[in-house]
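User: What would this chain look like folded?
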Amino acid sequence: REAAGTRVTWITRREGPAGTKGPLACDDNDPLAARQELFRAANQLAVSPDSPVTYWPATLVERISRDDPAGPLVVELSGMHAGDQRFDRIIANVGFRPDWTFSRELQWSAHSVTDEPHSTILGTAGDDNGAAILQPEPNYHVLGAKSYGRRANFCFTDGLNQIRRLFQILGDRETLDLYATVKLPK
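Assistant: Here's the prediction, encoded as structure tokens.
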């Protein structure tokens, strides 16, 4: 809006989960309503004919080069929108992969696909809390976004719950709640 004439091309490897409704899947049961509002707004931008955003699903980036060091980037695409395209900038939001180099010598392993720690998953079967905080390595615990590996559904409250659960385990007190409000006597 502030820079008239600016165009954005949004490229995804797969057809968006919402099909012709945009690249992002909306989940009406998502506990974060604001995230779903953001997804809906982004999808609307991606599919609206008068939008400065063009959505190209099922398209892969094969190569990026420059004919001139000061010129646009030449991007070779394959898939649904195959061919060479020229862009001024590339913003790659291609996922997160934790850096585990600091823990190479420790006794633990990460899942080969999700890159989240293998371990005792806390919670009940089917609980998607990503809290693999107990590791075979003594006194080594994985908390926060790293415990989710490449999965994108980590929320700050998950991290707080992991901290609460770890202190319950370390203190051997199931009822320990670090975030409980203590009422002091008057």
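Residues 59 and 71 are 23 Å apart (CA to CA). If you want, I can go into more detail on any region.
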